[in-house]
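Q: I'm teaching a short session on how sequence maps to structure, and I want students to see two examples side by side rather than one. Could you give me a first protein with its sequence written out and its structure tokens following it? Keep the formatting plain so it prints cleanly on a handout.
A: Of course. Example one:
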Amino acid sequence: MTIPLIITICILLILAYVFDITSSKTKIPSVILLLILGWVVGQSASYFEIIIPDLSPILPVLGTVGLILIVLEGSLELELNKSKFSFVGKTSQIAFLPMLVLSFGLAFAFQYFGNTTFKIGLANAIPFAIISSAIAIPSAQNLLSKNKEFITYESSLSDIFGVIFFNFITLNDNIGTDSVGHFILELSLILLISFISTIGLAFLLSKIKHHVKFAPIILMIVLIYAISKIYHLPALIFILLFGLFLGNIDEIKHNKFIHRLQPDILKKEVHKFKELTSEIAFLIRSLFFLLFGFLIKASELLNTETIVWALGITTAIFVLRLLFLKIFKQTIKPLIFIAPRGLITILLFLSIPISQTIETANKSLIIQVIILSALVMMVGLMSNKKKETE
């Protein structure tokens, strides 16, 4: 059983790589093909009565590690200087405001039709309102630099804002002055942790002479993230700030304190670190979506009771996106099409406390919204006549 399993995983990951390198020509997001491939494998295993243990507990683990690596990979690519401040501010608003509007609108709908409280409706609505950087960033790789940068910033910030908002709503029974004060304290604490951890990890990256140096750094990043999550801190902020610091070391290398980190040596190490991060992120992301596709049941995908909700939510996503892109005077095409739901949606859905779950927002609805938003992105990119290659 061991050897056939290894062969199967290797073949699936090689196919995932083929999907990744051909997506620029086919305009089909690799995540769609991965989900289909995973689903076909699952159906085949069921048809041939191959006994496979329950793999669903692995999904949140892969998703969490994948999210860390994808946000880190994206932040390492971003340039941050004075000329970018206006752009980052605008992107932050586009990431935050549509998420807020959709969350509140969908919460009212859940409250009215789902016979629940607004707060519980909001907890279930937030996962649908967040753009998945795990799908958006890889799908934007073949766009023009300015559009790719926009998608990377927007989707990463959407993940961070969404997770912070979700934790604030689900972890506080009563929203008031105390909960807001506690939230500000948590935010201040994670910024302090981010500063200390970033300097410490950058120091290690420039000083470690052992031939194995990047794996311990990545493990420590995951460890800091996991410990921060235990105390309900918005740990993605640390990942984003750490990546931005390393990716923009040239901008601050003249600072006397930064000079102690040997920025010239550090820059070379960061380049190697970035390559390794991209490789591992690809593997984890591929395994996550293959496994998610494997776990999808046909009855969940074709659930007629939730399809109307799924179509309504997907329509609202892209209508709001069009509205806010116009308000902030951004390029409409192809940006309007790149608002997929995915990894972060699944992770937050699985994190909703049992006491706050509702029947309307179920697994079928999550799957259908993810598939529909990914299909819109695929069709949009395929129909985009202007070549976005440099």
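Q: Perfect. Now a second example for contrast.
A: Example two:
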Amino acid sequence: MRGKLAKLAGLCVGVALLAGCGGTGLFSGEGREDRRAARAAAQQQALIDEGLVLDPNRETIFDLFANSADPNTTVAVNRYLWTAALEVLDFMPVEAADPFSGIIQFGFATPPGGGSAYRATVYVQDPALEARSLRVSVESRAGAVSRDVARQIEDAILTRARQLRIRDADL
């Protein structure tokens, strides 16, 4: 009887030593963890398929309208257009400026050599240095002025913006 117990004890010690060596055998925990993770993923997918849990990777039409960029850190205006607008219209007082939306509102002022006072609103709507990225609205105390005046101011701002960009490229 003692011989059988000794053999059984030796066999148990051998199995315990083999199990402690690691590896991916019958006694290792790696296979068990993989099976648990696979089972949890399958249960999660089943809940998503039944509609009980929202799919985190699901995309809808409303995702097109979601602004995922942080508006407190993202400025989507062209810096050359912004600076050029401030330089060209520097004779006007700045009433409001919002670099995040791209709007600069200037108060009434008389241009050098001019006779009447004007105010302007500049809208830089795109990060590209292009004419379509800039809109200028000008009015006098008597009302709106011709579109040609606004175009001339837009042209002056675009010209100055290109000069600033060329200057920065030479650095």
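Q: What should students look for in example two?
A: Point them to this: The chain has four helices and five strands. Also worth mentioning: The two ends are 94 Å apart (CA to CA).
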